[in-house]
Design goal:
Blueprint: E1 3-5, E2 10-13, E3 17-23, E4 29-35, E5 58-60, E6 66-70, H1 79-91, E7 98-102, H2 124-151, E8 159-161, E9 164-166, E10 172-174, H3 175-182, E11 190-192, H4 211-216, E12 231-236, E13 244-249, H5 251-254, E14 259-266, E15 271-277, H6 280-288, E16 291-295, H7 304-315, E17 320-325, E18 339-346, E19 358-363, E20 368-372, H8 377-387, E21 395-399, H9 415-426, E22 432-435, H10 438-442, E23 451-459, E24 465-474, H11 484-487, E25 488-489, E26 492-493, H12 494-497, E27 509-515, H13 531-549, H14 553-560, H15 566-583, E28 591-599, E29 602-613, E30 616-627, H16 634-648, E31 660-661, E32 664-665, E33 685-689, H17 704-719
Parallel strand pairs: 6-7, 12-22, 20-21, 24-27, 30-33
Antiparallel strand pairs: 1-2, 2-11, 3-4, 4-5, 5-6, 8-9, 9-10, 12-15, 13-16, 14-15, 17-27, 18-23, 19-20, 19-22, 23-24, 25-26, 28-29, 29-30, 31-32
Helix pairs in contact: 1-2, 2-3, 8-9, 13-17, 16-17
């Protein structure tokens, strides 16, 4: 790491760390810190000097306002409050004076570990916790130094609290008063970070800074962007992925009043037809009137029924080895009566964030400006530049607030941004907003892949699994992307097997392999990625084994966990404690379901109270125990787990599947791809956080994997059936 912490908790800059401090043109203090190399880079790599934005990370204004720039996308996860809390805590800032903004695309805002600017893998707090602590501590040290110089005393004689420096003899000065002088101070070689008990904000339930503007409608999202002279664009996509325009009759479409242009554009695969108009409804009406003949002859026409049969056949053969532990032949020694052989099937899933996809671009010939609610700022900026024949630094890239994403705004091929750039290139000097409708998104691909699992389990005399042979079939998300070199090894996409290969259960003879068929359906990570299906398989099977052994499901899991599964054990124990009062008093017709799983470094245990109403599961109560390390903002973590529990239920919805027939997606909107509504979501979700002083881990995705298996385990107790195919079309 380019910045290191010794045992005395003092952070030392090395030669690969850079800081820039300056006085703002309008007065005040600006601090920019950049850790030049990602941690995964080679130590021998030569660092590059960076050109820093003038207002990176911290701007203390003369009036005392502390403006903190967040190097991530905010799209509901709460990072625009949590990261500023971390910085403000080390700064000893008055929280009431803190304001925040989202960072544009720039090298300085890249993830300090991965070397690109992005949000994903529940890494925002985990990767930037120390980074933002250091920013706050260094800024505070310079303010104290400025005050000490002013009062002719030593910094050790000064203390800080609530944006004020206090000195000997009752002296005091606000940060705003000291900001300009602090900008002239030398960069401290080392800074003292706070010990955990000294935190004043971190660990407290702090209301989110964006709550009020979201509630009163004043907060603007990318779709709300309105620039003078802006036009609206839409694209007609081929009905089968990768199709091309064969012929186009746009006469009727051009006749719609307000239509400015209709033209063919290249897509990442195939071609489409762009419509540019003065308003959205005009563009949509024009698109509906296009007469396009598509050439679909050169592309595969995927079919869900055929894929299911193909996948099940593949699952009966070993794939590329993901993990092989113990004796591969141990299963052969297990008698047939002590074996289980089961198959699971999972469909394609769409993300359907509440705010549809959109990108606004103005191309001026030698420069461009983009406004995007992007999870992949670095990648999307590069893609726009490539289409416009510019360098990335010639594209000013604004990160817009986004209304959800769940992975859909982190696309390695930047297909939406490429479409928008191709359209903007034709309308030089005119800002153009490309809008994908809900129908475009539902039918537009980039789904959680379809999967089939086949699992053989050999059960020992103690009722515990003695052998486990597991084959997974599903498309690789990473194949053909820039991430493949790092995360696809020996033909195994790590995102397809995560949650199975890293199980914390002590299964002595454990073997997992995977097949990655190539299918003409674009696929993408979906909130918690491979854990969505792997946790379901693992946790429903473990529950079935517990039932077969006639052992309490919590006791069974506790017994099966590895000795070093400390986080998961603590989460399970906390859930056990907090749910005990209601678990033992369930009404007639209700059943308990439990599950536990660790993902993205965070351990989660879940207990649910479920009944059946109108042939659908009714989730009366959810109790969650979670161990995320340091809980930066417990209020945000609680919200994440409450919302994540509802999101996870989407896997169970009767119409919660994307299916294809003759290459065409059969669903179109929420009428046929239905998310959980209020009657489907849990009535109450109690979230309990394990006290922990370890480094923080992710909380955006870990809520999702546990809820569905817990609900299905409860259903199994109610009906006597085991559910191995999602969605739950019928109980």
């Amino acid at each position: 790491m380019t910045a290191t912490v010794n045992s005395a908790n003092r952070l030392q800059l090395t030669r690969r760390s850079f800081i820039r401090v300056s006085a703002a043109a309008a007065g005040g203090l600006l601090v920019s810190l950049y850790l030049d190399l990602p941690l995964i880079a080679q130590e021998s790599a030569k660092p590059k000097l960076q050109v820093y934005p003038p207002d990176a990370f911290v701007h203390i204004k003369p009036d005392g306002t502390v403006l903190i720039t967040v190097n991530r996308l905010e799209f509901g996860q709460g990072v625009q409050t949590s990261l500023p809390m971390v910085l403000a805590d080390e700064l000893d800032a008055d929280w009431s004076q803190v304001r925040t903004e989202l960072a544009p695309a720039a090298d300085i805002y890249k993830d300090p570990l991965f070397g690109i600017q992005f949000v994903g893998g529940s890494n925002s707090i985990a990767h930037s916790f120390e980074q933002y602590r250091e920013l706050g501590a260094r800024t505070r040290a310079m303010l104290v130094a400025a005050a000490a110089d002013l009062w002719k005393t030593s910094p050790s004689q000064c203390r800080t609290e609530a944006s004020v420096v206090y000195g000997p003899g009752g002296k005091s000065a606000t940060y705003g008063q000291l900001a300009e002088a602090a900008a002239k101070q030398p960069i401290p070689a080392t800074v003292q970070l706070k010990n955990r008990p000294q935190f004043r904000l971190v660990g407290k339930r702090v209301p989110r800074l964006d709550s009020r503007p979201k509630c009163d409608g004043s907060l603007k999202f990318g779709l709300d962007l309105d620039i003078p002279g802006m036009k609206i664009a839409m694209v007609a996509h081929p009905p089968v992925f990768g199709g091309r325009v064969k012929s186009l009759d746009d006469k009727t479409a051009r006749g719609v009043e307000g239509v400015l242009d209709v033209f063919e554009i290249p897509l990442v695969k195939g071609t489409g037809v762009a419509i540019v108009a003065d308003k959205f409804w005009t563009a949509k009406q024009a698109r509906d009137r296009l007469k396009v003949e598509w050439d679909l002859s050169a592309v595969e026409h995927a079919d869900s029924t055929q894929l299911s049969a193909k996948y099940k056949e593949l699952a009966r053969t070993p794939g590329n080895v993901a993990v092989s532990r113990g004796d591969e032949k141990a299963m052969d020694a297990v008698t047939p009566g002590n074996r289980m052989v089961v198959e699971y099937e999972f469909p394609y899933l769409a993300h359907t964030p509440m705010e549809p996809l959109n990108t606004t671009i103005r191309y001026d010939g030698d420069r461009a400006e983009a406004w995007v609610g992007s999870q992949f700022q670095t990648v999307d900026q590069m893609a726009i530049a490539e289409v416009l024949s510019l360098r990335p630094e010639q594209v000013t890239f604004h990160t817009e607030m986004a209304g959800g994403g769940f992975g859909r705004r982190a696309v390695s091929d930047s297909h939406v941004q490429r479409e928008a750039a191709a359209i903007a290139k034709r309308l030089r000097g005119v800002p153009v907003k490309l809008v994908w409708t809900r129908e475009d998104d539902v039918r537009g691909g980039y789904y959680r892949p379809m999967h089939v699992h086949r699992v053989e389990i050999g059960i020992g005399p103690d009722g515990m699994p003695a052998a486990w042979r597991h084959v997974i079939v599903g498309q690789s998300i990473l194949a053909g992307t820039p991430f493949a070199a790092m995360m696809v090894k020996n033909g195994v996409d790590e995102t397809a097997v995560e949650g199975a290969v890293g199980t914390h259960y002590n299964i002595p003879n454990f073997h997992v392999s995977v097949h990655h068929p190539t299918i003409n359906v674009p696929v993408l990570w979906w909130r918690s990625v491979g854990h969505t299906h792997n946790a379901f398989v693992m946790e429903t099977l473990i529950d079935e084994l517990a039932t077969r052994a006639r052992i309490n499901p919590i006791v069974y899991r506790r017994k099966l966990l590895k000795a070093d599964a400390g986080k998961l054990r603590r989460a399970l124990d906390l859930m056990d404690e907090k749910s005990a009062s209601w678990r033992t008093t369930l009404p007639k017709g209700h059943a308990l379901g439990v599950s536990c799983h660790e993902s993205f470094g965070t351990a989660v245990a879940c207990a649910v109270d479920v009944s059946i109403e109108n042939n659908r599961p009714k989730i009366h109560r959810v109790t969650i125990g979670v161990d995320p390390g340091i809980a930066v903002n417990p209020l945000t973590i609680e919200s994440q787990f409450q919302g994540g529990s509802a999101f996870g239920v989407s896997q169970l919805m009767a119409k919660g599947a994307i299916t294809l027939k003759d290459g065409r997606v059969e669903q179109r909107n929420f009428d046929s791809y239905t998310p959980p509504y209020i009657n489907d979501a849990p009535i109450a979700v109690d979230v309990h956080i394990v006290p922990n002083s370890e480094q923080p881990t992710g909380c955006g995705e870990p809520p999702v994997p546990v809820i569905s298996p817990a609900v299905v385990n409860a259903l199994a107790a109610l009906t006597g059936r085991r559910y191995r195919s999602l969605p739950l079309v019928s109980l």
